[in-house]
Inverse folding.
C-alpha cells in the first residue's frame, strides 16, 4: 500500500511539474497542448460557433444600415403621337417627355424602420452575449472533461498497480503453501479486468480531447492541457446574490420583445400610403417648344391596408413578451438551483475526500492483514474495490462541482475562470 501511494504521489507531482512547464511554454512549443482555459477562450474567435454569433450581429447591422435608405427615384422617357395615321405617321407632331419621379415616404415610415433596425441590432448583440456565455459554459465542461479523463486514467492505473501488488502477494503465499492456488487465479482475474479498464479510460480520454478540439475549432486534436482547471475551485461562504433581470437569457429576451414592439410600429406606419412627386420636360415638335410637367400621385388604400402584417407583428410581440416573462422566471429558478448546487457540490467534495481517506486506510490495513495471513484474499479485494470506488466518487464529485461552477458563472455573465463575456 505504501509503495502504491508513493507512486501515485510521484505521478501527481510529475503531472503538476509538466503542467507548470506547459503553462510557461504554451502552445508555441507543443501545438497539441491546449492553453490555459482563459487563453483558450480568447483564442477561439475563429471557432465555428463564435463565427456564427458574429455573423448574426453583422446581419442585423446590415439590415439596420439598409433601414436608413430612402426610396430610389425613377426616370421615364415617353414618346406620343407617332407611328399613327396621318398626320401622326411620322415624328413631326410627336411629343417627347423626360420625367423624374421621386417617391416620398410619409407617416414616419423611415424613422420607424430605423428604430426597428437599431432594436434588431441590440437584440442580436444580446443574443450574441448569451451565445458566447453558452459557448464558454460548453468549452469549460469540455476542458474539464479532458482533465477528468486524464485523472480517470491515473485512477485506473493506480488500481491496476495495486491489483498487481496483491497478485504478487497472493502468489508468494501460494508458493509458501499458505494460500490455495485458486486465490492467485482470482487475483489474476482482477488484474486482467483492470487492464481492460485502463484501456477503456484511454479511449475515453481520446474522445474527450477530440470533443474539446472540435469545440475550440481546432483541426488537430489536443493531447494535453497546459493548466488544470478542477483545482481552481475552493469552497465559498456565499455564492450570491444574482439579479435575474441582469442574466443574459433575460436581457436577450427583453431585447427581442423591444424589437418586436418596434416592428409593430413599423407595420402600422407602412399602412399609410406614400406619395410620388413627378417633374419633367415635354418637347412639342409641332410647336418646336418645350414645356414643364409636374404632378403628384397617391395610391388609394382600398384593398391593401397592411392588416395582415400588423396582426402578425402584434402576435410576434405577444410571443416575445411571453418569452421575456418566461426567461425571467427561468432565470430566478436557475439562480436558486445554481446557488444550492454549488453549496451542495462543495459539501459533496469534502465528504468524498473524507471517504477516500477512510478507504485508503481500510485498504492499507487489509493489505497488512492479508500478507500476515490474518484475513482472506476476498477481504483484500473488497477493500481495494472500495478504494477504487472512493476515488471514483471523488472524481465524480469534482466533476459535479465543475458543472455547478460553470452554471453559476454563466448566470453571472462570466467564464468559469472569472472573465466577463461581452
Amino acid at each position: 500500500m505504501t509503495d502504491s501511494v508513493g507512486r501515485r504521489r510521484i505521478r501527481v507531482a510529475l503531472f503538476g511539474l509538466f503542467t507548470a512547464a506547459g503553462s510557461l511554454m504554451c502552445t508555441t512549443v507543443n501545438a497539441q497542448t491546449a492553453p490555459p482555459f482563459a487563453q483558450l477562450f480568447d483564442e477561439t474567435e475563429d471557432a465555428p460557433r463564435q463565427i456564427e454569433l458574429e455573423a448574426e450581429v453583422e446581419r442585423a447591422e446590415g439590415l439596420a444600415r439598409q433601414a436608413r435608405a430612402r426610396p430610389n427615384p425613377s426616370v421615364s422617357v415617353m414618346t406620343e403621337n407617332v407611328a399613327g395615321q396621318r398626320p401622326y405617321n411620322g415624328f413631326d407632331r410627336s411629343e417627347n417627355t423626360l420625367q423624374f419621379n421621386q417617391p416620398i415616404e410619409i407617416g414616419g415610415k423611415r424613422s420607424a424602420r430605423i428604430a426597428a433596425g437599431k432594436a434588431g441590432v441590440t437584440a442580436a448583440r444580446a443574443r450574441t452575449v448569451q451565445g458566447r456565455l453558452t459557448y464558454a459554459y460548453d468549452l469549460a465542461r469540455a476542458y474539464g472533461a479532458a482533465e477528468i479523463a486524464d485523472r480517470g486514467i491515473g485512477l485506473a492505473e493506480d488500481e491496476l498497480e495495486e491489483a498487481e501488488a496483491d497478485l504478487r502477494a497472493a502468489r508468494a503465499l501460494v508458493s509458501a503453501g499458505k494460500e490455495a492456488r485458486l486465490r492467485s487465479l482470482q487475483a489474476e482475474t482482477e488484474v486482467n479486468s483492470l487492464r481492460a479498464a485502463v484501456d477503456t479510460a484511454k479511449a475515453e480520454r481520446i474522445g474527450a480531447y477530440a470533443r474539446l478540439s472540435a469545440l475550440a475549432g481546432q483541426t488537430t486534436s489536443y493531447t494535453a492541457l497546459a493548466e488544470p482547471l478542477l483545482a481552481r475551485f475552493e469552497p465559498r461562504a456565499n455564492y450570491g446574490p444574482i439579479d435575474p433581470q441582469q442574466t443574459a437569457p433575460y436581457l436577450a429576451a427583453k431585447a427581442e420583445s423591444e424589437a418586436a414592439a418596434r416592428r409593430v410600429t413599423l407595420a402600422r406606419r407602412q399602412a399609410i400610403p406614400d406619395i410620388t412627386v413627378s417633374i419633367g420636360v415635354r418637347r412639342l415638335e409641332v410647336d418646336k417648344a418645350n414645356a414643364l410637367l409636374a404632378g403628384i400621385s397617391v395610391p388609394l388604400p382600398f384593398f391593401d391596408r397592411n392588416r395582415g402584417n400588423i396582426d402578425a407583428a402584434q402576435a410576434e410581440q405577444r410571443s416575445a413578451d411571453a418569452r421575456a416573462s418566461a426567461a425571467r422566471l427561468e432565470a430566478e429558478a436557475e439562480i436558486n438551483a445554481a446557488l444550492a448546487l454549488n453549496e451542495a457540490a462543495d459539501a459533496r467534495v469534502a465528504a468524498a475526500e473524507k471517504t477516500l481517506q477512510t478507504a485508503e486506510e481500510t485498504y492499507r490495513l487489509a493489505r497488512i492483514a492479508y500478507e500476515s495471513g490474518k484475513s482472506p484474499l476476498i477481504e483484500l479485494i473488497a477493500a481495494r474495490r472500495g478504494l477504487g470506488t472512493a476515488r471514483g466518487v471523488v472524481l465524480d464529485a469534482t466533476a459535479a462541482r465543475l458543472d455547478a461552477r460553470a452554471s453559476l458563472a454563466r448566470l453571472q455573465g462570466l467564464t468559469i475562470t472569472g472573465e466577463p463575456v461581452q
Remarks:
- DSSP finds eight helices and six strands in the chain.
